[in-house]
Design brief:
With 274 residues, the chain is an alpha/beta fold. The protein is 26% helix and 33% strand. The chain is built from six helices and 15 strands. The strands form two sheets. Strands 1, 2, 3, 9, 10, 11, 12 and 13 form an eight-stranded mixed β-sheet that branches. Strands 6-5-4-7-8-15-14 form a seven-stranded mixed β-sheet, with helices on both faces. β9 and β10 form a beta hairpin.
Length: 274
């Protein structure tokens, strides 16, 4: 169903509109965890991801790092299936949710706090595969939970980050990155209903794109029909597929393959080989 409001398309794709319950007002990490699992079903996504990894010669014995582990999507599902995966994230909020979710699922809650430019200082090994999913890589320029990012040199920061990932990979290793589709335009998606104690809200995922400035603004809003509560903002450079491909080659990568996941309608996925 497509309607319009305030000049921005409001799109619903028939996601599960059952209510998600919280005992207290949720954090951004908790709301993003709800949103991503409604927009991209975790079980289906994990199965597609594991099928992809196995097609590239990887298995449970491979050394894998998730450098944007967030609240555990999809690393915790992979740990449940026997993969030993090193997890990294910078956000206190996300790490707290990761550990809580790991305890609930009775898998290892080990996660290391680090930004990408310093992740090499945290490990003494190299990897067969590095994952940076959830549209996370675009925030290498800054702007996660903020309206501030490096507007002067965003491409430099992307290239530096890719260089770090390249150094962490074993020869022949692969980097998995996903990002918003180049065709994406401003829109809002009603994801599900959220209930906090006795109060119900629509959970809305909003995207605003500024083609001229090459900026992308993402936010999550809880709307009870009376007033809306917007969570932390996310504003950064609108990195294109062409720019990403060029930056990967500048960082030394030799392969750049685009993959489509049926379970993930939001983002395009790229397999980048060292």
């Amino acid at each position: 169903r497509i309607t319009t409001g305030g000049g921005v398309p409001l799109v619903t794709f028939g996601y599960n509109m059952n209510e998600i319950y919280f005992d207290q007002y949720p954090s951004f990490a908790e709301l993003w965890g709800v949103a991503i699992r409604q927009l991209c079903p975790e079980s289906a996504f994990t199965e597609e991801l594991l099928t992809l990894l196995r097609s590239k010669g990887l298995n449970e014995k491979s050394s894998i790092a998730d450098v944007a582990a967030g609240d555990g999507f999809p690393a915790l599902s992979m740990r449940e299936k026997g993969f030993t995966i090193d997890c990294f994230d910078l956000s206190d909020d996300q790490i707290k949710s990761f550990k809580r979710n790991a305890r609930k699922r009775k898998v290892s809650s080990l996660i290391t706090q680090s930004d990408w430019l310093h992740v090499k200082d945290k490990v003494e090994k190299s990897y067969d595969c590095i994952m940076c999913t959830g549209n996370s890589f675009i925030y290498a320029a800054g702007g996660w939970n903020s309206k501030e990012y490096n507007k002067d040199h965003p491409l430099t920061l992307y290239r530096q980050t890719l260089g770090i990932f390249y150094e962490l990979l074993l020869p022949g290793g692969i980097l998995i990155i996903d990002k918003f589709k180049d065709s994406e335009r401003s829109h809002e998606v009603i994801v599900c209903r959220v209930k906090v104690k006795d109060h119900s809200y629509d959970l809305t995922f909003s995207i605003r794109t500024d083609v001229d400035k090459k900026e992308r603004y993402a936010s999550i809003t809880l709307d009870d029909g009376i007033k809306s509560r917007e969570t932390l903002p996310n504003l950064t450079y609108a990195l294109s597929e062409k720019e990403l491909s060029a930056l990967c080659h500048q960082a030394g990568f030799s392969g750049f393959e685009k993959i489509t996941f049926k379970s993930n309608k939001l983002f395009d996925t790229y397999i980048i080989r060292k």
